[in-house]
Automatic annotation (TrEMBL):
InterPro entries: cNMP-bd_dom_sf (IPR018490), RmlC-like_jellyroll (IPR014710). This is Cyclic nucleotide-binding domain-containing protein.
């Protein structure tokens, strides 16, 4: 434990020394250099939760066991989406394949943006831990003035990206170290096409969800956002 700590500490010192050299050699002004170094120290000091790519031993597991492991990692999160909760009951094997090939887990540093208005990431996101806010501005969303709200732990964002070509209409910003899991719409579609029964269910749900998106206009309802598509 002490040896590992010392090695990690020495690694951080070396990275900061290299950063200071880079700033000095490129004549970065003192104010900017100070901000860069402060943020670097803060982020190097943060203890991020281990991710799969950090654990080399996982790479030697069989695909079958790795798929079982990823299903255990993601099952409680995707159960937060009604269709996926039903899908687990109907065909857990296909959901395991989805977890293996279409789901991701990422650590997002404090002060970073998960997504920005006008962009299209093709993913739905769930906040697993940390503090995050979602905001909209009149220039990029149909709102009269800027507005912001907190994203709750366990809340899914951008489900519309799984069923349409969704363009973000707001910004999700982290205010602490956050863990986020996501589903890729394209990868999910690839998994579904291999299973005709599942594909038929998803195609029907896609049509229904798409109708929700295009019918969500005032005065009948509020415009859709990255957090919610009104029923």
């Amino acid at each position: 434990g002490m040896v590992d700590y010392q090695m990690a500490r020495n690694g951080q010192i070396q990275r900061l020394r290299l950063l200071r050299r880079f700033l000095r050699e490129n004549n970065i002004n003192r104010g900017t250099a100070t901000l860069v170094q402060q943020q670097a120290v803060e982020r190097l000091s943060a203890h991020a939760k281990l991710q799969e790519e950090d654990v080399n031993a996982l790479k030697i597991l069989s695909r079958t066991l790795r798929t079982t492991l990823r299903f255990e990692l993601f099952k409680r999160h995707i159960s937060g989406l009604p269709l996926f909760r039903i899908w687990i009951q109907l065909d857990a094997g296909t959901v395991r394949e989805l977890c293996m090939d279409a789901m991701y887990s990422d650590i997002i540093r404090s002060g970073d943006d998960l997504f920005l208005p006008g962009a299209s990431t093709g993913r739905a996101y769930c906040l697993v831990s940390g503090m995050m806010s979602y905001s909209q501005e009149p220039l990029t969303a149909p709102v009269l003035s800027g507005c912001s709200e907190n994203v709750e732990v366990g809340q899914w964002m951008c489900e519309a990206a799984l069923w349409s070509h969704w363009i973000h209409v707001g910004k999700a910003k982290t205010h602490s170290l956050c863990q986020v899991v996501s589903i890729s719409g394209d990868a999910m579609a690839t998994v579904c096409r291999k299973h005709p029964g599942v594909h038929e269910i998803f195609a029907t749900y896609c049509e229904v969800f798409h109708r929700r998106i295009i019918s969500a206009v005032p005065p009948r309802s509020a415009f859709p956002t990255d957090l919610e598509v009104p029923l």
